[in-house]
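During the no-cost extension, the postdoctoral fellow (Dr. R.K.) reprocessed legacy sequence entries with the updated structure-token encoder. One reprocessed record is reproduced below for audit purposes.
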Amino acid sequence: MAGLALQHPETSFQFAYRSHALRRSLRESLPSNASRAWLHSRGTLPGSAKLFHSLNQRLDSRFPKAIATFHDLFVISGEYSTEEFRARFAAQARAAAERADLLIAVSQFTASQLTDLLGVDPGRIRVIHHGVEVPTVAPPPDSSRENLILHVGAIQKRKNLARLVAAFEAMPAGWRLVLAGSQGFGATEILERIARSPRRADIELPGYVTDAQLNDLYGRARVFAFPSLDEGFGMPVLDAMARGVPVLTSSGSALSEVAGDAAYLVEVDRTEAIVEGLRMFGDSEEQRQKFRVRGLRRTTEFSWTKAVEATWAVYAELL
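Re-encoded structure tokens follow.
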């Protein structure tokens, strides 16, 4: 949202926070044309605002003009969370889809889910891809990297990590697998599978990592593996590409849409397909370089400036 305010200094913005987030937001500076508001009034906009934009699938009230952004619907489409959370998310998503005048989907895949799962008229949906932050320094070459396969994301069932671990076990000695992320739904089963792995000594679980630690991992990794079963967008894929890491990812959900031909796409319900991709990258510096170049080129198509301009166009359309 700061990007919108910075690109449109002639407009006043109010960043509305629910109670639990308002105090935390005080640590962040805002653009000079933005102020904070407490999101508490049902059916009314904070202050004199003419439009309310919910940045996720939650729109608790009806507003005179409203937009809701949907990032994904995997909670509804698969058993990737508890029943209680699934019921609460589904109720919020259906209410937001019904109350919003226009809906922003972060991918064509998510847009199709809005239509298929929630019955939203496609004419009410606008697709706006996320952008990616491109580092200001050139990524290190393949020759200075380690035989390290990196995955970034929560340790959870949806990320398909049990299959990734099984595929990694087919890699030659000397390769390591790093699964960077906190624990999520289904983590216990995944951690038990890792504990039984004959390559357990080669698998690292650093948990949550800071931005500095993450950048270090991207700079050391020779391969990025993200065989997720369901993603509404897949930011880690672009983040890895922007840092010069060749990517293996899913041919399904939004991942093929985001990756295009710049990643090696696999059918992620087939462990042998993941094995084939990892071995291809492991054996061939030429293939790693090919996908490295494609990935760096691909990231130029996803900018936050473009996302801001497209979002502003949706505001103008509604107002």
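The mean pLDDT is 93. The first helix runs from residue 2 to 7. The remaining legacy entries will be reprocessed before the final report is submitted.
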